Amino acid sequence: MRHRVSRHKLGKSTGQRMSVYRNLVADLFRYGKVVTTESRAKRVRSFADKVITLGKQGTLHSRRQVLSFVTDEEIVDKVFAEIAPRYADRRGGYSRVTKLGSRAGDAAPMAQLDLVS
């Protein structure tokens, strides 16, 4: 039985997988969009939405929670000052996954993850 077993392991250990997620979320907030594989984009979308939700709260505790996931202080400041106020009236769904086709080298399905404007 597979009760409560995680879906996406991406062939990596937990530390490596979380590092990939952290870096992709940081790059998403830094550049506004990220091109990656489809499975990574789908998984990172939930982390990015949770970070923006914490940014909308604006408390010290939520800032520390975001800092524990995204360790770059400039990006955390950007989330709380620019990105979260942009979505003040929105209830969720801050990011979008757009399928791009397959990668030339290994035919992996690629996708673009970007912030909804």
What order do the helices and strands come in, and which of them pair?
Blueprint lengths: L13 H18 L1 E5 H20 L2 H10 L3 H14 L8 E8 L6 E7 L2
Antiparallel strand pairs: 1-3, 2-3
Tally of helical runs: 4
Major sheet characteristics: 3 strands, antiparallel
Overall, the morphology is globular
Low-confidence stretches: none
Structural class comes to alpha+beta
Residues in β-strands, percent: 15-25%
What is the averaged pLDDT score? 93
Q: Considering DSSP H and I runs of 4 or more, what fraction of the residues is helical?
A: 40-55%
What report would you give on this structure?
With 117 residues, the protein is an alpha+beta fold. The protein contains four helices and three strands; from the N terminus they run αβαααββ. The protein has helices at 14-31, 38-57, 60-69, 73-86; strands spanning 33-37, 95-102, 109-115. The protein has a three-stranded antiparallel beta sheet. Strand 2 (95-102) and strand 3 (109-115) form a beta hairpin. It starts with 13 loop residues before the first helix and ends with a strand.
Q: Key features?
A:
117 residues, alpha+beta, 4 helices, 3-stranded antiparallel beta sheet
Overview in brief:
With about 120 residues, the chain is α+β, with helices and mostly antiparallel strands.
